[in-house]
What does this fold into?
Amino acid sequence: MPEPRFDEVVHPPTRLRICGLLRPLEEMDFSVLRDTLGISDATLSKQLKILAEAGYVRLAKTTSPARRDARRITWVALTPAGRNSFDAHVLALQEIAGTAPVRPD
It folds into this structure.
């Protein structure tokens, strides 16, 4: 379990929700993530760019076997660093709220 650490990159609501949605998954399609969050392509792209620059998400483009055109699917995944930072941030929020799990010494 990581040490609690408040993370300014993860903390803004949209980025916190992105990390929370990606946390239990290997990866998620950009459009599914966008629709789940109810935000625009531009807003999601901006937030993912910030997370990617911090090393917290990985973006990968693939062609769709179901499509005959050249459009590509963008897959989004938390990196190990992103997963660790999200987990540490959640622990820090739990400490702030007074609901942190008891840690063995």
